[in-house]
Amino acid sequence: xxxxxxxxxxxxxxxxxxxTAALCVVGAPSATxxxxxRIPKAPRPVLSExxxxxxxxxxxxxxxxxxxxxLFISASTVSTHISRIRVKYASVGRPAPTxxxxxxxxxxxxxxxxxxx
Length: 117
Prior knowledge:
Shape: elongated
Strand order of the largest sheet: 1-2
Order of helices and strands: HHEEHHHH
CATH topology of the largest domain: Arc Repressor Mutant, subunit A
Helix content: 40-55%
CATH class of the largest domain: Mainly Alpha
Number of strands: 2
Structural class: mainly alpha
Radius of gyration: 19 Å
Mean pLDDT: 79
Number of domains: 2
Largest sheet: 2 strands, antiparallel
């Protein structure tokens, strides 16, 4: 595959050509970054509605027990959901080892907004 097939706007004579080609993948969703470069969006894992519900309850709670009580499930079920969510994020190259990382991912992926917090 040639650079032109990867990124049609690639210009081998340009100093920005190789960097642009490295950042662009045809068919991938992208956003425009500094200097007009297209930057691929981060891959988003597929979370079930229940996983999103548990994630948001846990993020809003001070503990897994508190989140569990609000959802009428056990704390170990909350832990299982959170573990599976972390595995899904890691599998798409966006690890989230802490609660703060998971909040950032939820914001980035549109599951919540800063206004809700």
